[in-house]
Amino acid sequence: xxxxxxxxxxxxxxxxxxxxxxxxxxxxxxxxxxxxxxxxxxxxxxxxxxxxxxxxxxxxxxxxxxxxxxxxxxxxxxxxxxxxxxxxxxxxxxxxxxxxxxxxxxxxxxxxx
Length: 113
What we know:
Blueprint: H1 51-59, H2 68-91
Helix pairs in contact: 1-2
């Protein structure tokens, strides 16, 4: 065979040993499929203006670098923090401190008649 005529193992327009683009390749053997690695979801987190809540929401970005089984820990941590922030809002502000009473000065001993 010459180089200009494709042989039985070569599709038209490809070099010998090269796979043509439109020929399906054999699937990989069962069990050899690798799961995709972590990838950012690209979810936009809009700031709330409350520093504590914004810090918790930014913590969600940590999940972008973890595999799916690591997301649970991040989500639970953020949930605990947000719940604590909401609970603190329900409690209201602490009462203002009451000034300590001043001792009264007994002036009866200096009162001479």
